[in-house]
Structures are given as C-alpha cells and as structure tokens.
Amino acid sequence: MITINPYIYFDGNCEEAFNFYESVFRKEISHINKYKDVPQSERGIFQEPDEKIMHATLPLSKEVMLNGSDNSLAYKETNTYKTFSLIIHADSRQEVDRLFNELSQNGQIKVPAGLTFWGAYYGQCIDQFGINWKITLAS
After folding, report:
1. pTM score, two decimals?
2. Which residue has the higher pLDDT, 12 or 19?
3. Using only C-alpha atoms, what is the Rg of the chain?
C-alpha cells in the first residue's frame, strides 16, 4: 500500500503552526526535529537558525499524516519549494527506489534515495512537471 500525504513549508513559523494544528485536530505531534539536530557533517545546505523546524509530523488518521518544516534558505534561494510537497510512504525499499526513479525521470534529483542520518530510507526529487516529491519507507 502506498499513501501520499501533504508536506507544507513555512516561513519560520512551522512549530507555531503545528502546535495550532495539534489543537485544531485534537491530535498529538508524533515527530519533530529542529535544524540543531542535523549532524555537523550534514549541515552543508542547512543555514537555518538552530531552533527552526527541519521536520514535523502530525498524524491525522491511520493513513493521513500532515508533514511540515521551516523552508530551507537553500531552497528559497533556488525557488525549489514554494509552499508544499507530496510525501509518499512506501512499504519497501524496492518500492521507494522504483517510485523515486520513475518520478525523477526527466526531472531533478534533490536528495538521492538512500539511508539518511535520521535513519530513514528516503529520497527527494522534482518531477518533470515541477511537483516536489519526498519518498520514504513507511515506518
């Protein structure tokens, strides 16, 4: 089974927004990482203040997750992401690889599919139509 969920980019107020959504939807944030959590060796593209949000997840149902982050300055400068991406949670690495390879064909690879420092199997690309995709192994 594949699920597709929204990934919203904020201009520095992701934590405030997710705290608001948490109260509105009466759900609890399941995951939150700040840019200060990024290992020094991986800080190359991240120039954000340490307290800004690198990634947050708010489960709205068993299948639907609202995801978000404070938009990376590196992405803003290149106009890569405006306000959203779609994130796919796949059941296997093979499915992540297949989806990533097909979606990135004639597009642009932002993060090659592979194991990340936060322990996820993950890739990020922009398809040939300009849609931002994040593809990860469902946990």
Report:
1. 0.66
2. 19
3. 15
Q: For residue 88, what are its two tokens?
A: 């796919």
Q: Are the C-beta atoms of 104 and 96 separated by less than 8 Å?
A: no
Residue 96: Cβ within 10 Å count: 23
DSSP line for 100-135? HHHHHTTSEEEEEEEE-TTS-EEEEEE-TTS-EEEE
pLDDT band at 62 (very low <50, low <70, confident <90, very high): confident
Task: Give domain 3-137's CATH superfamily.
Answer: 2,3-Dihydroxybiphenyl 1,2-Dioxygenase, domain 1 (3.10.180.10)
Tokens describing residue 53:
């949000």
